[in-house]
From TrEMBL:
The modification N6-(pyridoxal phosphate)lysine is found at residue 198. It catalyses: L-isoleucine + 2-oxoglutarate = (S)-3-methyl-2-oxopentanoate + L-glutamate; L-leucine + 2-oxoglutarate = 4-methyl-2-oxopentanoate + L-glutamate; L-valine + 2-oxoglutarate = 3-methyl-2-oxobutanoate + L-glutamate. Pathway: Amino-acid biosynthesis; L-isoleucine biosynthesis; L-isoleucine from 2-oxobutanoate: step 4/4; Amino-acid biosynthesis; L-leucine biosynthesis; L-leucine from 3-methyl-2-oxobutanoate: step 4/4; Amino-acid biosynthesis; L-valine biosynthesis; L-valine from pyruvate: step 4/4. PANTHER family: BRANCHED-CHAIN-AMINO-ACID AMINOTRANSFERASE, SUBGROUP IIII AMINOTRANSFERASE. Its cofactor is pyridoxal 5'-phosphate. This is Branched-chain-amino-acid aminotransferase. GO terms for biological process: isoleucine biosynthetic process; L-leucine biosynthetic process; L-valine biosynthetic process. Belongs to the class-IV pyridoxal-phosphate-dependent aminotransferase family. The lineage of its organism: Bacteria, Bacillati, Actinomycetota, Actinomycetes, Micrococcales. It comes from Helcobacillus massiliensis. It is an enzyme of class 2 (transferase).
Amino acid sequence: MTYTPPTAPRRTSDERRAEILAAPGFGNHFTDYMAHQRWTVGEGWSSGEVLPYGPLNIEPASAVLHYAQEIFEGLKAFRHADGSVWTFRPDMNALRFQRSAERLALPPLSTEDFIASLEAVVQADEPWVPGGGEKSLYLRPFMFANENFLGVRASHTVDFYTIASPAGDYFPRGVQPLTVWISPDYARAGRGGTGFAKCGGNYASSLEGKNSAVGQGADEVMFLDSETHTFIDELSGMNVFVLHSDGRLVTPQLTGSILPGVTRDSILELAPDHGLTPVEERIDIHRLAEDIASGEVLEMFAAGTAAVINPIGKLASEQGEWTIGDGGSGETTMALRRILTDLQYGRIADDRGWMHRLV
Ligand SMILES: *Cc1c(COP(=O)(O)O)cnc(C)c1O
């Protein structure tokens, strides 16, 4: 599939872009262009076009505004020292996008078309890919029902866009140990629900849990399973890992209510190279609290594309507080973070063929 390149000029001046790239924050600024494909029932996917980034013309009756038939992805484009631009395991995101689409009754988009959209945007917006440091260009493919119809059924018209946003640190304080509040009442997703799909609705239902965590002075919320409220699912947008003193690196097994993170999968695969034993199993929150208190748990961290790997310094709940290790950034946590970012920025060899060149 080939994209028609943009014809419209850039909307952002070179000076303004340089100013934004100096301190991009996260998700605040958007590039000059976006990629678009439309699907219609009977006809399938249109060819791709690169359009100027700008408002969409959506009618008030558009299905997505009422029934939230929407999915998205999140990846980053990294500039390497030689100026080339790469992304990390985009085939994994494409596959997850297909699984999310199926769950939300949206049409599947081929891996080829998914990756073509990333290439189209990053090629058009190449000057927006920051260089140096730990900055990147965050890529946000998303698909939504866009039929003007208020009945409840899968939409006959669907739009797929990819937009881009220069990114610095995800958390405003940079890489600092997080305090995580264990939600006493909310769950993120239930069995048979949409927990494994990357859909906007999951985030809508996580917001109040996150709000109450912030109200408790925490940075993030941890959701437990909806049935027994005993086992860890994940944070609002990141998977969770626990490092034990015997070298086991444990993350909750995928039960359907947990988002299968690409970062999570990559950490599990890299762990043995670094003397760690990756384990996927259910994590009982009471047992975890005991293991933290006894010193058996050495480190905890959160993992996702946006924040990469971020240490968790403390858990808190209505029952008390548990400081992990000395509450600081764990050594293994920061080493894993460095390995992953070194790989993504091309500073170490890509033995597994995980990197995909975009420009
Ligand atoms: C995207 C996401 C993650 C992290 O997935 P990555 O592929 O590693 O970015 C974790 N949890 C939720 C709920 C997410 O939406």
